[in-house]
Amino acid sequence: NSLLVTRGIRSGQKLAVRGNAVVMGDINPGGEVVATGNVVVMGSCRGVLHAGAEGDENCYILVYKMQAQQLRIAEYVATVPEDAGASPLKLAVVQDSSIVLTDYVPAQFKESSAEVAEEA
Questions:
Q1: Fewer CB atoms < 10 Å away: N or C end of the chain?
Q2: How far, CA to CA in Å, does 38 sit from each of 11, 33, 55, 82, 110?
Q3: pLDDT at 93 over 60
Q4: Strand duo 70-73 + 48-51: pairing
């Protein structure tokens, strides 16, 4: 199940989704998106994102312009460094018991998704 939201999330607003959340807008400071599945933001994120809210470490966060106050995947928590890299599209996943933030490369993501599917 996925929910497509075609507006931004303003300060003080919280979007809670059972399943995947896809936001076609910005997440402003003080705004929050919590999903039991993956979180995809096709805009700028300056708020808080939480994927895998019920404990699924295989979830991911994909953001067009990552400036989040805080990222959470399952029980793991991270902040985004100011020098997050040149690529505007960022992917956050859990690796070795911590959240890793990388530039999104479609071919690499397909390979890692296939590995996760094979393990399941």
A1: C
A2: 21, 10, 12, 23, 15
A3: yes
A4: parallel
